[in-house]
Write a structure and sequence with these properties.
This protein is mainly β. It is built from three helices and 57 strands. The strands form 14 sheets. It has a nine-stranded antiparallel sheet. An eight-stranded mixed sheet has the order 37-39-42-41-40-43-44-38, with no helix packed on it. Strands 49, 50, 51, 56 and 57 form a five-stranded antiparallel sheet that branches. Strand 35 and strand 36 form a beta hairpin. The protein is globular and about 70 Å long. The C terminus is likely disordered.
């Protein structure tokens, strides 16, 4: 799998060595925490391992500056420190030959950061619990998954079933980037290896790597999903093993295999990670206290916020597959850039698409009109306005042209007992086709059971739902046997003949728990969810009331809150929560529930936010108002090119975003779309019309607010628009201008010239 080239970071190993030392067993203790330099605007993850592993449950507090606040604290200097516990822990047993040619054994224990990468943590945790990474004994001996790639001072990489840096579990999944996590600070960051960023980050499988030092050059190219707590001696022991050349000519292959001898997942509050973030340039004394069984211990260190000299690349939010009943849709792309640089959006058609393939914008999110007359695989793209040297971030999605969406739910998966759950063929999902003429034989489906088992083709079956009142309702039938206790993500994909797709996610809880939780994807317009039912569950164990349960909701955007458990009429329970999302995107929501005497159970679902209620703040612009347009241009076969310009029979669809980047509330104005041969506003331009109007009203905007206006010029025999060609002062060709008319009515430089690249 693809990885960047290593960079020299030997000078940082001395800092990490403080975490390698093994302290004597004591009632309670914390290993020394080195001083930390926090890049301003970024977050560091610092391991906090206690020195009594396996001891009683413990609690942690943290203070910043004057010790007045515990749990989560901030000071006026801009440093925020938060303790994070309760995540699953991944333990990897390893054997390796050290630099003295002595065979060593060790264990690396990672805290999985499910708050920031919930899907990745679930999938890798499920593979570990299902035995994917464990040794397999056959008639010819024992087979180990290894770390076949070791790059001293950089990373160690492993997890492939082929004992190389290729191969995976039979399925792939998308990157999960968080604006809170970068490859900085402490070594031991656990991240996914992938096949590169070209045409989508959806190439993650089973391979992962562990950093040996900070690697900021990896930011937003690879998903960070864990942090090493214990086992730095094993990590750096592997880094010191003897190496040779691999088949690709890279000097990175261990001479003696580095084997993974075990992979398990457990819940533990024994250790923690500390999240450090900062703004500005400042420093503070951080105090971490661990308490257990009546005793406590304290470690202090200095955290300094320093100017960040790394300009990280932007990254795209998830893009869901779409159905386009009339061949047209408006696609929202959401971008994040921590430096608030100007962004450029676009899409690249991997199969023929009618319309443009270059669209540009400069906002946190853009809405792009798209026209497709056939089913397509399309790659959305994002990079800096002045293109990043690392290339754009891609997200691949499917468009079902002329098709209607599929609707469905994953059925509740029963809890397992004694570590084994046998699912004879049953209805894993029930769904309704958008097209009434679809038959069962026309669908394709796959199921990822989360333990390394992936079913598709004839391994699954689709049958009509005999209980349904309509003919277009179906059941997806399949069976599976889990051989070990664990929490396994279940991912179902269904596609109809017309190109529409449906993805459903859930969790199979295999073990002694009597609680079965289920949830469905949430589709919501607006950022605020109020008293929303996010999951339901049943309990076949001891009789209980709603007050006997506790629930937690991880909203997928870095926020975690308690869930309210309420009784439902059918003797089941529902989990209710409220939350406000700040950006339109797709988030992975994770819900867990437990009661005394029953182990916890969890489920996860996707939350699709189509809009936001909260005000968005955008980068400063040189003018008080800026109009930026992006459009889809469709022509017929009667285009005529003349010496004075180009005439088209056309249909023009587009949107214009107006941003108030000043510091005062604007009055209402209007927007108009013009064509002009010279590119100047001299009164000779011709306005496009939208619904017979030559201008579109713009509401009053508060400072930092924006509005998006959509316009359409339908192509027919009565609409013959001329797009004359001119040159701007820089000598670039101009097709027209978009102007924002402020309340005074003068043109104050806020107009935006549209170049051919904008269409």
């Amino acid at each position: 799998m693809d990885m960047p080239h290593p960079r020299s970071v030997a000078s940082l190993l001395a800092t990490i060595s403080l975490l390698v030392a093994s302290a004597a067993h004591a009632a309670i203790g914390i290993q020394p925490i080195p001083d930390q330099n926090i890049p301003s605007g970024k977050t560091l993850v610092v391991p906090i391992p206690a020195t009594d592993p396996g001891g009683p449950a413990r609690s942690y507090t943290v203070t910043v500056g004057p010790p007045t606040t515990s749990g989560s604290a901030t000071n006026t200097a801009g440093i925020v420190a938060t303790i994070r516990t309760g995540d699953p822990h991944l333990m990897l047993g390893v054997t390796y030959t050290d630099s003295n040619s002595v065979l060593q054994t060790g264990t690396m224990e990672f805290q999985l950061l499910r708050e920031f990468a919930p899907t990745t943590a679930q999938i890798i945790g499920g593979l570990a619990e299902g035995g994917f990474y464990s040794p397999q004994t056959t008639g010819s001996g024992t087979y180990y998954i290894t770390f076949p790639r070791v790059l001293p001072g950089f990373v160690i990489q492993g997890g492939s079933p082929t004992d190389t840096t290729t191969g995976g579990p039979g399925f792939t999944f998308e990157n999960e980037f968080s604006n809170a996590l970068v490859f900085g600070g402490t070594a031991g960051q656990l991240a996914m290896a992938n096949g590169g960023t070209d045409f989508g980050g959806g190439t993650n499988g089973s391979q992962f790597f562990v950093t040996l030092a900070p690697q900021r050059g990896l930011d937003y190219s690879y998903t960070i999903f864990g942090q090493l707590l214990r086992g730095y001696d094993a990590l750096f022991g592997i880094a010191g093993t003897a190496l040779g050349y691999n088949s690709s000519g890279e000097y990175s292959q261990p001479v003696n295999p580095v084997n993974i001898t075990s992979a398990t997942v457990s819940q533990s509050d024994a250790d923690a990670v500390l999240l450090l973030s900062a703004t500005g340039v400042c420093n503070s004394l951080i105090t971490v206290t661990a308490s257990s069984a009546g005793s406590s211990t304290v470690q202090t260190f200095t955290a300094s916020a320093v100017a960040d000299t790394t300009s990280d690349p932007p990254f795209l939010g998830p893009v869901a597959n779409r159905a386009a009943p009339n061949g047209k849709l408006k696609l929202t792309l959401t971008g994040t850039d921590l430096q608030r640089d100007l962004l450029r959006y676009g899409y690249q058609d991997l199969l023929p698409v009618t319309g443009t393939s270059i669209i540009s914008g400069i906002l946190d999110h853009v809405s792009i009109p798209l026209v497709s007359d056939t089913d397509n695989t399309i790659a959305a793209a994002l990079d800096h306005w002045n293109a990043s040297t690392r290339g754009p971030d891609f997200r691949v999605f499917q468009v079902g042209a002329g098709d209607k969406p599929i609707r469905g739910t994953l059925t509740a998966i029963p809890p397992g007992y004694n570590g084994i759950l046998v699912l004879n063929p049953y209805a894993v999902a029930v769904f309704t086709a958008g097209n009434s003429k679809d038959t069962a034989a026309g669908f394709t489906a796959s199921i990822n059971w989360g333990d390394g088992t992936y079913l598709s083709g004839s391994e699954v079956s689709i049958v009509p739902d005999a209980t349904a009142r309509t003919v277009n309702r179906f059941n997806l039938m399949a069976g599976h046997t889990y051989n070990a206790a664990g929490e396994y993500p279940v991912i179902v994909n269904i596609a109809d003949p017309g190109g529409a797709t449906l993805t459903l996610t859930g969790v199979a809880n295999v073990g002694p728990s009597t609680i079965a939780v289920s949830s469905a994807d949430i589709f919501h317009t607006g950022g605020s969810l109020k008293d929303k039912v996010v999951a339901t569950f049943g309990d076949i164990g001891a009789a209980a009331t709603a007050a006997d349960y506790s629930a937690t909701i991880d909203w997928g955007d870095g926020s975690v809150s308690p869930g309210i458990v309420k009784s439902a009429p059918d003797s089941s329970y529902k989990i209710v929560g409220s939350h406000t999302y700040r950006t339109p995107a797709t988030f992975t929501l994770s819900t867990s529930v437990s009661r005394s005497g029953a182990s916890g159970a969890a489920t996860w679902a996707a939350v699709h936010i189509a809009g936001v209620d909260a005000r968005q703040v955008f980068p400063p612009f040189p003018q008080a108002h800026l109009a930026q347009a992006w459009s889809a241009l469709v022509t017929d076969t009667n285009s005529v090119v003349t010496s004075t310009g180009t005439s088209f029979q056309l249909s023009l669809e587009g949107s214009v975003a107006i941003v108030n980047s000043g510091d005062r509330t604007s009055k209402a104005g209007s927007i108009a779309v013009y064509v002009d041969a010279s590119g100047t506003l001299d009164g000779s331009q011709t306005a496009f019309t939208s619904d017979g109007k030559t201008s579109i009203p713009v509401q009053a905007l508060h400072a930092g607010d924006y509005t998006v206006l959509y316009f359409e010029v339908k192509g027919n025999t009565d609409t013959r628009l001329k797009l004359p060609v001119g040159l701007d002062p820089a000598g670039e060709p101009i097709l027209g201008v978009v102007t924002y008319s402020d309340p005074v009515g003068d043109f104050d430089g806020s107009q935006k010239i549209i170049s051919p690249g904008d269409f």
